[in-house]
Model the fold of this input.
Amino acid sequence: MDLVVVLVISLSCLLLLSLRRQRSGRGKLPPGPMPLPIIGNILQIDPKNISKSLTSLSKIYGPVFTLYLGMKPTVVLHGYEAVKEALIDHGEVFSGRGSFPVPDRVSKGFGVILTNGSRWREMRRFSLMTLRNFGMGKRSIEDRIQEEARCLVEELRKTKSSPCDPTLILGCAPCNVICSIIFHNRFDYKDQHFLNFIRKSIQNLKILSSPWIQVCNNFPVLIDYFPGSHKTFFKNTAELKQYFLEKIKEHQESLDMNNPRDLIDCFLIKMEEEKDNPQTEFTTEALVNLVNDLFGAGTETTSTTLTYGLLHLLKNPEVTEKVQEEIHRVIGRHRSPCMQDKSSMPYTEAVVHEIQRYIDLIPTSVPHAVNCDTKFRNYFIPKGTSIITSLTSVLHDSKEFPNPQKFDPAHFLDKSGKFKKSDYFMPFSTGKRVCAGEGLARMELFLFLTTILQNFHLKSVVDPKDLDITPVARGLISMPPAYQICFIPV
Done:
């Protein structure tokens, strides 16, 4: 027999034996499909729509099951009860961050999104405290968003009712808000450096949501030895980090220890305070990666939601009309919308929630991991095991949201037309790893959308019935298809 064939058969037997031992060791992992040697269950997962594959498998194996994405086991949580039980009831145990090889390669263990342990806790604590100090959830940040909303309106007026792709313009507004917090300044919408910055961020998000990156994340060996879009992602991120580093150096030259202007200043002050601590987490490399994380999480997720939201409003003109009626009744034409208006605008709030529920922006969230060996629903999950949470299964639960595949603001309204909260509303995930900028994002979505609809009628260049709302990718992010829209001044 050919030596190569013998080696392949031997290796396959060893792998199968290893998998069997892993499943029957000190306890058993949740059930799941039998993995193939080396590739695991990858052939049973559609990289273009992972959530759909997970839903199909959950019908066979239940709400908690095991997949082998490559040679390592991953536990999948499907449905509200399983997600809540893990991320909330056992939040500390499930608060680890799972392996995410492509973005891990550029974060190098720093930042706040992909870190673990004491480093994650330190960076998250600092980020939350600083964001609050600079106004997140307060009137001061609301003023900044309102001002940016007025700038956005002026930029949209310049389209002169002509068809346009809103993606780039809608990227500028939330990016400027986060710039004001991190850099203490905003940029003109025509600033080419600023626009290039946003284009690279949008391109990176598309790359991370592509099927190729899903393959690379499951087989990291491909990252070093194969060409592909991941190389562009690395190049873009390196350029963005270089820009951040230059901004940090500018801040160092003008730093006033007693008068911090923004998040970078606050971090630099912490660096100075801990300069004699060899174990400090406050280093320049940590700052560059933290800024990169905050920009990625604070800009593209909000702008993508806005872009997708306007597409759904084009698709459902009767919904748009009701929102505008409420805006004109509660706010009128001549003052800026404010967060205080939200309590008097149940339909508008329901629409914002329904946009987030329906588009299912981050279908499987970012991978979690268990911090220690744990028993969960009578199964044994070893320390470090990656956890995938299907947010799709929660946001599209048919018991909580009747006919979940239909865009319907009534999902968040009671019989009397008042806004109705739902525990199943988890677009920002939940538990210990819930998005740190959730409050900022909620404020931006409400104020930007209401200000746009206060000032413009939305017109589609095709019949609304013919608009395609199908995501072009459903990897890390559900990416909306390209479309044209006309902003007609009211």
Remarks:
- The chain is about 50% helix and 10% strand.
